[in-house]
Design a protein that fits this description.
- S-adenosyl-L-methionine binds at residues 163, 183.
- Residues 49-271 form the Radical SAM core domain.
- GO terms for molecular function: 4 iron, 4 sulfur cluster binding; metal ion binding; transferase activity.
- It comes from Luoshenia tenuis.
- The chain is of the alpha/beta class and 351 residues long.
- It is built from 14 helices and nine strands.
- It has helices spanning 4-9, 16-23, 29-47, 86-99, 116-129, 144-152, 167-173, 180-193, 210-223, 249-262, 272-277, 281-286, 300-303, 323-332; strands spanning 50-53, 55-60, 103-108, 134-138, 157-159, 196-203, 227-232, 292-293, 336-338.
- The strands form two sheets. A six-stranded parallel beta sheet has the order 2-3-4-5-6-7. It has a three-stranded parallel beta sheet with strand order 8-1-9, with helices on one face.
- The longest helix has 19 residues, at 29-47.
- Bound molecules: 5'-deoxyadenosine.
- Residues 69-70, 161, 163, 202, 231, 233-234, 236, 273, 308-309 line the site of 5'-deoxyadenosine.
- The site of 5'-deoxyadenosine (5AD) has 12 residues, from loops.
């Protein structure tokens, strides 16, 4: 029988038991090396040695939700709340464009102050100011009508992690009122509308089992998103999950390798959380098949306030203004940062 990596690469679906077997080998060096070599080859075939960068603008840390893991949850009275103005956001874009960014990601908590009109106004101004750039939104669950309006205003991409594809596990991570069903409905609506869609999950979140991870992979193979963001769970001191341990670096990069084989043309970021749990985390992610890095373009004055988890890195090479340093790190491992929108390659498009 063919090796699971060949079968995965040829599009075969695995059941939960098969996935658990594959996932349980994550510490086996021989398996890891074979997986990563193959994942790198696949990324190379689709994207060469290009690493795409996205300028991340964290424009509000107000949030109406109370997710148990998240540092900007509503109940966290210690969070210093802020909102950027439209002018602040446009100056981030201006600075980012000059640095070579051609994708801007507007990320924020679910902040009622940012109505459809407000976001559309910002997106239209960005579209007009930087017509050659991609605009990505990461602003949570909204109505299909709202997603349509934002798309019409010029947004192209949307990031919304599913967090966990198991409904019961979902309920242990989120307070009542938030459901996996609704999260999934949002993701399918976004796809229908024509966004390039990113989903993803935390690795090692409290109560997560290998069966849950199996379900995450099964869900992603069904959804076929254009992007998948995964990062280790990292506890935040002012949340109910403060005493849980962080997710594993090894499991996160192993999953990146698997995702590269499963969704060969996908955009896979080596996330900030991965860079936070280990100084070499981002490089390890790229060497396991990731091809995107999302440096922080938020104004320095607010960067430390967008704290989803403890010790989140923000001012080193993950900072947009240190792109040259990031470029050197990428070149040291055989990759190069490109000035490009970095759209998803056809194989994963329209899937
Ligand atoms: N650790 C790691 N990732 C987190 N996120 C939120 N809180 C944490 C945490 N404590 C992730 C979620 C969310 C994304 C923006 O950040 O997956 O979708």
């Amino acid at each position: 029988m063919a090796h699971w990596m060949d079968r995965l690469a040829s599009g075969e679906q695995f059941d939960t038991r098969q996935w658990v077997e594959i996932l349980s080998q994550y510490q086996n060096e021989t398996v890891r090396e074979a997986l990563f070599a193959r994942a790198r080859q696949t990324a190379q075939r689709y994207y060469g040695n290009a690493i795409y960068v996205r300028g991340l603008i964290e424009f509000t840390n107000y949030c109406k939700n109370d997710c148990f893991y998240c540092g900007i949850r509503r109940s966290n009275a210690c969070a210093q709340r802020y909102r950027l103005t439209k002018e602040d956001i446009l100056s981030c874009c201006e600075e980012g464009y000059a640095l070579g960014f051609r994708t801007f990601v507007l990320q924020g908590g679910e902040d009622g102050r940012f109505t459809d009109d407000a976001i559309c106004d910002i997106v239209s101004a960005m579209r007009e100011g930087w017509p050659d750039c991609a605009i990505t939104l990461s602003i949570g669950e909204r109505s299909e009508e709202s997603y349509r309006r934002l798309f019409a205003a010029g947004a192209n991409r949307y990031l919304l992690r599913h967090e966990t594809a198991d409904p019961e596990h979902y309920a242990r991570l989120h307070p009542q009122g938030l459901t996996l069903e609704h999260r999934k409905a949002c993701l399918y609506a976004l796809k229908r509308i024509g966004y390039q869609v990113g989903s993803g999950f935390m690795v090692g979140s409290p109560y997560q089992t290998l069966e849950h991870l199996a379900q995450d992979l099964q869900f992603l193979s069904q959804l076929r998103p254009h992007m998948v963001g995964i990062g280790p769970f990292i506890p935040h001191r002012d949340t109910p999950f403060k005493d849980f341990k962080a997710g594993s670096l090894e499991m996160t990069v192993y999953l990146l390798g698997i995702l590269r084989l499963m969704l060969p043309g996908a955009l896979l970021p080596a996330t900030t959380a991965l860079g936070t749990i280990s100084p070499k985390g981002r490089e390890m992610g790229i060497l396991a098949g990731a091809n995107v890095v999302m440096p922080n373009l938020s104004p320095l004055s607010v960067r430390k306030k967008y704290l989803l988890y403890d010790n989140k890195i923000a001012t080193g090479e993950e900072a947009a203004e240190h792109l040259a340093a990031l470029q050197r790190r990428m070149q040291a491992i055989g990759y190069t940062i490109v000035t490009d929108r970095g759209d998803c390659k056809p194989a994963a498009k329209g899937t």
